[in-house]
Amino acid sequence: MLRGLVCWIDESDQSHALTISRLVMKRLGYSTPKLLADAKARSDEYHLDDMDLPDAADRKFTRMHAIMRDKTEGYFEADEVDELVTTPSLTAEIDQQSVQAVLAAKVQEAREAGLPSDCVETLQQLLARYCDVFRLAFGNDPPIKVPPLKIRLKEGARPVKAKARRYPPLHREYLEKHLQELLDRGLEYINHRSRWASAPRIVAKK
């Protein structure tokens, strides 16, 4: 019995086939080099003409590989990906009036929540001074002058593939909208080849 094994079920396949990764097989004691060495020790030559082998198109792994290839072949064109990542097209124009309207609404919310009058005035002055740093959508802005973020792992730490999270409907709606906007602006792309993943976590601001 295999416990804790993450699997993918293809409900359209009725052959009851099971494909296990090389790492799992190694954990179970399966070793391809050892099998080849044992076969070499038994005989230097094998004739496989009389074996009833299925066609390559009917093999489970070949079908799975073909599915993933068809899904990613049209998307992962080298020129398209390079252009998408290196020179994203950000044509959105800055609408300062809309930004000021949203900021005014936020100030009103703070006033209704009990913010003192002198603090309200100070807040309005700060927002008016730094109004140009607020955006309602992605725009054609210069890069921020900050040091690049570096991920530093502790000694002995190993990356893992985190499990998927269960999100409330509002969180899912926000993630779908936000990620689609990033895709449309060319700020990210779908990577079907990634072996490591971490589910996003939405934290409410206080």
From TrEMBL:
It comes from the Eukaryota. InterPro entries: DNA/RNA_pol_sf. This is Uncharacterized protein. The lineage of its organism: Eukaryota, Sar, Stramenopiles, Oomycota, Peronosporomycetes.
